[in-house]
Amino acid sequence: MTPATAARTATDRTTTGRTTSTVRTPATDRTAAVPVRGTARLHRLVEDVREAVGRGLSPELTAHLVSEALRPHMGAPDLLTEEQRQSDPETYRQHLLHAEPDGSFSVVGLVWLPGQRTCIHDHVAWCVAGVHEGEECERRYRLVPDGTSARLVPIQDVVNPQGEVCGFAPPGDIHRVWNGATDLAISIHVYGADISRLGTSVRRVYDLPEDDQ
What we know:
Elements: E1 7-8, E2 12-13, E3 18-19, H1 40-53, H2 59-70, E4 93-99, E5 106-112, E6 121-123, E7 127-133, E8 136-146, E9 149-160, E10 165-168, E11 175-178, E12 185-191, H3 195-198, E13 202-206
Antiparallel strand pairs: 1-13, 2-3, 4-5, 5-12, 6-13, 7-10, 7-12, 8-9, 8-11
Helix pairs in contact: 1-2
């Protein structure tokens, strides 16, 4: 198996945000594009993101500008409705908060109960994530060729507290995220893609040995 085939495409169960290991093209429509009800602050956040994305800069610079737009809203009690804060007892839950009509970006809320986590994955586009409530743990990886296969090398472990915002763009965006605390965690993610159509931000799921050396 070559490094190029060492990772699989993956899909979410969109209504709950569950990532599966099904080999499938993520572009399959699984969520109808419907109007999303939101608070006045959420609408202001969308306007701020729209302005940043509309500048048409590189993915890296766009992620930086979107990070700056997202940061002031983290922790604000009037950002989400009670419905958008709902969790799932089985896995982390994904709430689609906004999908831009032209497909240029989406805003998603992820709600995590203690111990819930993602698979190891990368993304279809640039991504910005901010911790709105609680804290999130993250392990970042580098994919290293190993003969005819590949292996994952952890390069950084991070605990992101409430208010922390980070942005990145492929490549070099392989990671796993989880709630390692004892309380609920909520994060807001902005993706440079139409999540209402794709159903997921995940490009590939990685089932490879982890090298801690």
